[in-house]
Design a protein that fits this description.
globular; six-stranded parallel beta sheet
Length: about 425
């Protein structure tokens, strides 16, 4: 249930492994693309999608009736925030739909990231209420956190270790048996709360460390130190250090949103929030404004104001070589530049031209003319396929947020 960045790779992998897979999604545009073998997820190319469609083992549909007599149902739907609180409406709707088709011996697995207790307190209750069956006795239920890293050429669904849990030993066995045929390594845990907590630990760890290195980059700038050189040197230490790099902010669902689920849950029960996460969120949230301030300073040194300047944003997605722009810091950078009077243009070969969030931002191609005519280029996402040598040669001023270009008279890095 859900054929996005998490659900589609799982569905294709399951079909390749010999399962008959129903890919249920409520997005009509997605279903049209899937039926035409047009993948919108970078980790699944259209040829791979076409191959599983031809086998007849993968059927994308929006009709819940197709769930009838399922053996395994996996929930991979969004879990956004609403007014700072978890919105489990998609998970609740999925569980309610599944309950109407749940039969004895079937297995239900939640993969959507959420706060500890969701599987047992929310999903189990809805499944039992809607089906009249009992979890662990009549059907099996577990949680397995998704570990999809879109665009990662090394780690994919099959070779990334899979954490699995169940509401009891029989459920754990059922969940483990299902994923054992899909991935190389299984990591079983004692309970669903431990699995839910595992995912939040992973994402909070990344968010906090990115915030730390962002703050160190600010300090290095003030002190006149090349933070990138120092980070490379620190990374040569073979123990006790893991390299993170600064950037314009954090994006996607995992880092800006997922740790908030844990902090919210903790505050509900104790009245206290995660202090490190709160500080990290503050540091990361202010990064787009710091990028705009660095751009303003750079233009001022060149005798120009932001007002009336043409600023080219290179990259709208939140990370390289993917089309996902959810929570992307590029969006906030654009929102901050427009009221200052900048003419904002953007290049992103991965993000669809239907990019709807900021109509005032004109989409252009990465040409010598666009680079040359921009008063400033902000390199926000270092996608492959961009001619960075051309950018370096033609652009009069580049603020490089990814340390992609050689620094010099026309290139600064954050």
């Amino acid at each position: 249930m859900g054929q996005g960045y998490v659900g589609l790779p799982l569905a294709v992998r399951a079909a390749e492994a010999g399962h008959t897979v129903i890919g249920l999604d409520i997005d009509g545009e997605r279903l049209e693309k899937l039926s035409a073998a047009q993948s919108y997820v970078e980790d699944i190319d259209s040829q791979q999608l076409r191959a599983v469609l031809r086998t007849g083992r993968y059927v994308p549909t929006g009709d819940p009736a197709a769930l009838e007599d399922f053996d395994v149902a996996v929930i991979t739907v969004p879990t956004p925030l609403r007014a700072g609180a978890p919105d489990l409406s998609h998970v609740e709707q999925a569980a309610t739909t599944i309950a109407a088709h749940l039969s004895r011996g079937a297995t239900v697995i939640l993969e959507s990231t959420t706060y500890p207790g969701t599987t047992e307190d929310v999903v189990l209750a809805l499944l039992e209420k809607g089906s009249g069956l009992r979890g662990e006795e009549d059907f099996f239920l577990g949680f397995s956190p998704e570990r999809i890293d879109p665009g990662n050429p090394q780690w994919n669904f099959a070779n990334t270790p899979k954490v699995v849990t169940g509401i009891g030993p029989r459920s754990l066995c059922a969940v483990q048996d299902f994923y054992a045929g899909l991935v190389d390594t299984i990591v079983p845990l004692s309970g669903t709360k431990e699995g839910e907590f595992t995912k939040l630990i992973e994402n909070t760890f990344r968010a906090v460390n990115i915030a730390l290195v962002n703050e160190l980059a600010d300090a290095a700038h003030v002190l006149g130190i090349d933070v990138w050189e120092s980070l490379e040197a620190a990374a040569t230490k073979p123990f006790g250090f893991m390299k993170f790099t600064p950037g314009p902010g954090v994006g996607g669902h995992c880092l800006p949103i997922d740790p908030e689920y844990l902090s919210w849950r903790l505050k509900q029960q104790t009245g206290e929030e995660l202090q490190f996460w709160a500080l990290a969120q503050k540091v990361n949230n202010r990064r787009p404004a710091q990028v705009v301030q660095r751009l303003t300073d750079g233009l001022n040194r060149r005798g120009r104001a932001v007002n009336g300047s043409t600023v080219l944003l290179l990259g709208l997605a939140y990370k390289a070589n993917i089309s996902d722009y959810r929570e992307s810091p590029a969006l906030r950078v654009a929102e901050l530049l427009l009221p200052l009077g900048a003419e904002v243009r953007a290049v992103d070969p991965y993000v669809s031209d239907a990019f709807p969030l900021i109509p005032a931002v004109k989409r252009v191609e990465a040409t010598a003319e666009e680079f040359r005519n921009a008063d400033a280029v902000i390199l926000l996402t270092d996608h492959q396929g961009i001619d960075y040598d051309l950018l370096h040669a033609e652009a009069p001023y580049v603020l490089d947020c990814r340390n992609r270009l050689k620094r010099g008279e026309t290139v600064e890095s954050i």
